[in-house]
């Protein structure tokens, strides 16, 4: 056995903490042109495998000096994972010939299951490619014995884990190493698997490559493009760690349509960052040129849409039938499971959307139903349980209108997190919910949905001082009292950074009855039968309006519309009065639409009664809405301060939506009082009914009636909800 082989065998026998090098041969580097193909955060989305394979194979053939890399989070997200635990994805990855993968946080989701990380071990062992992971230590979990060698190597074996690997591309050596977010300990269930500081691990691994003369280095990371710089951040990595040339990233699901260049603070050399969004929607491509010194001399990147179609609606590339056949049996099994109905019928869209007002930054009807089911089951076990809360990061999908299947239930809650009952003090509840809302209006996987509670907070205050009111059963929480709460085991153990809950768990104040989250959710849906739930004001923000209170039925909608994502204008400005009973005007509607949809005018308005308006924002808003086809006016006038009828409101909303989804065709509305209206008005009202923007009254739409600002807030919030549904589908 050669000395090199002896070293390899010795290191493979146990996990080694130091960043060893498995070769002492130093290479002479030269210039190189190569292509990096990349995916990330695919989350068990395999439905378009034939198109994905066709695209990968075509582009790899056209660009022979290439590597194909995955930046983690193959696990969790659809029923394919619940049924096959990554094996369907692995069939595809092996078929496509991936060169390396790093681990995402979701690869560690099953640590709390009765079999621990057995499914991850099976995934690793079955891979026809190596894994790179410089800051993850598997040595304390015996399930991984013999799989990890904490070193960089040019002799990587398939189905094994290394700090980094050395690939030869067109005669040149290229180093590839992996990093996983340190937050995995808080947002997944790694158990005995440990995570080291990402910057320190990166520096050690780069040094190990450079010791072998490797000067072209790719970091394959699952730390996020713009996440917490202290724990995980690709841009920080590029700035702080000299020697890295390319970062192929994941974790934040960022759609980087073009590569981003960051200059390293020490070397002042460029580092190129790429990331390809999520769910196998894109295949990333980075064409890159290195000079003789291993410095990036030129690059060009793009995201290829998987399943691109021509104008006739046909795929541009013929699907790869061999790839489709590989997983055909899996697809059939999942379809059968997906199609089994629960007995519940969703009469409204149940929102698992992302963004402001979605599951990670707001109350949703889906979050309410999930926590209601959790509370129901907990009360069966312990009658003293009074509240329940669910982390928004654990809600992974939405449910469309219609009969609800078990497949949809499992896709919403794919992790199978078991129920926990935990006893906490009022003080600990305050700490918990301050943590829940600290990032708002930014998203947070730790944003909590609630049952049995009402949460009111002020997002203008600094984190840790935002809670205004915390009520249980309509009464303010007593900070010194004890309360029993239902949640999932992940959250009870302090997941997502809930330190107060983690302390309570460690002190033995939690029990684990063991009922899976999706089962409790399904039972609640079945109990409801016809599911019509909307948001109820369980979680709301303060407003500047002095003439409304949280007791008003419309308060949650008004509060939502006074908050905006960073860089956007809120629909309602921070004024002292809302005037809820005042009649809505045409100007009001135009301002709401243009602010929310960020419409901008190219020209000045042409209406005679608008040209001389002193309100500059209103003038431009009217011009923008006209250019977008949302308003038309009459006889050269717009009449901005006239009250708007419900028919006119429907027309404006439907025209605005057509700008977003031009292919939408509204079904015929069932209201009894609209048959005399013209075809466009009937279609617009059909849109209003189909998208549950307004319900009407006693089977009538009342098209000639006016709308109060209170009712308009609800309608507009529902309209924005509809827009987000389309954008995220």
From TrEMBL:
- Which InterPro entries does the record match to this protein? 5'-Nucleotdase_C, 5'-Nucleotdase_C_sf, 5_nucleotidase/apyrase, Calcineurin-like_PHP, Metallo-depent_PP-like, SLH_dom
Q: Which UniProt keywords apply?
A: Hydrolase, Nucleotide-binding, Signal
Which Gene3D superfamilies does the record cross-reference, listed alphabetically? Answer: 3.60.21.10, 5'-Nucleotidase, C-terminal domain (3.90.780.10)
Molecular function in Gene Ontology: hydrolase activity; nucleotide binding
- Where does the SLH domain start and stop, copy by copy? 541-607, 608-667
Q: Name one GO biological process term.
A: nucleotide catabolic process
User: Into which family does the record put it?
Assistant: Belongs to the 5'-nucleotidase family.
Q: What is this protein called?
A: SLH domain-containing protein
What does UniProt list as this organism's lineage? Bacteria, Bacillati, Bacillota, Bacilli, Bacillales
